[in-house]
Amino acid sequence: MHMQLLYNNKVVIFDRTDFGASNLSLPAGKCRYNDEALSVDCTAHSVLYDILSNTYRPLMVQTDVWCSSGAVNSNGTLIQTGGYHAGDHKIRIFSPCYDGDVTCDWIELPQNLTVQRWYSSDHLLPDGRVIIVGGRRAFSYEFFPKSFNNNNDVFDLPFLKETTDPKEENNLYPFLYVLPDGNLYMFANQRSIILDYVNNKVVKEFPIIPGEKRSYPATGSSVMLPLCLNSPTNLTVEVMICGGAWGGAYLQAMEGVFWPASRTCGRMRITDPEPKWVMEDMPLGRVMPDMLLLPTGDVIILNGARNGTAGWENAVDPVLNPVLYKTNEPDPKKRFAVLNPSTIPRMYHSSATLLPDGRILVGGSNPHVRYNFTGVKYPTELSLEAFLPPYLATQYAHLSPIIVDVEGQILSYGQKFWITFNLGFPGEELMVSMIAPSFTTHSFGMNQRLLFLDIVEIERVSVFGYKVTVFAPPSKNIAPPGYYMVFVVHQGVPSHSFWVRMQ
User: Fold this and answer.
1) What is the distance between the alpha carbons of residues 368 and 385, in angstroms, rounded to a whole number?
2) Residue 153 pLDDT more than 90?
3) Contact by Cβ (8 Å): 287, 310
4) Which of 24, 63, 399, 483 has its CA at a distance of 20 to 30 angstroms from the CA of residue 466?
5) Is the model more confident about 262 or about 146?
6) DSSP state string for 390-446
7) Which of 456, 455, 500, 494 lies closest to 479, judged by CA?
8) Which residues form the Galactose oxidase-like Early set domain (predicted)?
């Protein structure tokens, strides 16, 4: 249900704790007591997946993380918030292990959230705090660490109450993006605003997106399209939202009637003087899609269903084919490409994340009480799979750069730095992209962010060796402090990434 890539090339994966025992035992002596499902539970509901070795080890969460949220802070620690029942006020952390250390595990902090957070969204802010927004019956936001002048800060946000539909909600897991001016873009249901969270003030409201509802349980997905930093003082900021369901679809699905999912995507340049949604049709209707930014700047749309909504047994007809969206293709008729299908339905409670080698890690789908695998149309799915975007096809391997070194792994804002790489068959098209890994759950990659860096110079330093000099992002508003994957992209084919830290 939840996935987070860490800078040590491991992925934290976890699910709810109150379904009874899992198939994976915790290390000897570790057990949870007085849970909702079992008085003693010595099994794991979280794992740490090692990408390079394709292995995993069990982790222990103390309270129920069902439908919670998270963000990685500036030092690379996962801050994980909320959940269900005993977990709904909890703050947990997971810090990456040092090389060779296999003892790191979840830590539950004695400090709690001010109000319960279930189906909320988190985002790392330029000042290093994490903002936690919304949740079921939580029409407010708060921060971790707490604001500097008050240990119990919680701020009412009427926008969240205004966007709640009777009986359906359709405004949970709001889409959040930090903007280059430091304010927060927020989308819920069909509406969006800019929030000045420092002064607790809505400073702008945007037009309603046409068509269907877009937030949980009428679940669509969203990305902020790449920020191109060749002119950082005049940035274009564009948000894209795809998929969803009509209002009423959730209530109909509860009665066994599954309405067709949305086929539309909307793009809006929020920096325009008069922003408006520009709508496009996807090749396949989709509810519960996952949208991920690729190192090329294109968008992959995968997982989900053709009919219904999010929720238990509330969707049918899985969409097995990922779709590639070519962000900068000028002809709208050529922007979408249907890709090779999976054989595994990935619907409710599925998740996906971009890996440092350019693959997409996909897991989860369709919870059932007590891990029931029989008598249901779409049983709980325990496998992980990797999707290889078209740029990883063997016929493009000769175009992929191989990063040799990056000047300094800790970067200052606005500094000039270089990347050396090898390339056997150089062409003219070269870009350097920088991606913040997402906390992915319920069809939204929280904190996902892609920047195209400003290239100063490209030099040839040997027969197959090159050095590209670029500027680091100019401010914390454009790149909140923390860890990023840096890719060199040559003729649409990315290198393996290299981790850097902005501070």
Assistant:
1) 21
2) no
3) yes
4) 483
5) 262
6) GGGSGGGGGG--EEEEES-SEE-TT-EEEEEEE-SS--S-EEEEEEEPPEEETTEEE
7) 500
8) 401-502
Q: CA–CA separation, 388 vs 396, rounded Å?
A: 12
From residue 479, alpha-carbon distances to 474, 484, 500 in Å are 8, 9, 12
Q: 300-356: per-residue pLDDT in tens?
A: 999 999 999 999 999 999 999 999 999 999 999 999 999 999 999 999 999 999 999
Q: Which residue has the higher pLDDT, 231 or 259?
A: 259
The first and second tokens of residue 316, run together, are 């049918």
The 10 Å CB-count burial string (b at 16+, else e) for 190-218 is: bbbbbbebeeeeeeeebeebebbbbbbbb
The Cα–Cα gap between 246 and 212 comes to 5
pLDDT value at residue 374: 87
For residue 461, what are its two tokens?
A: 């330093």
- pTM of the complete model beyond 0.90: yes
Which range is least confidently modeled, 106-120, 128-142, 372-386, 431-445? 372-386
Q: Are 287 and 220 in contact (CB under 8 A)?
A: yes
Distance CA(371)–CA(378), nearest Å, equals 12
Measured distance CA(386)–CA(389) in Å, rounded: 10
CA 497, chain centre distance (Å)? 18
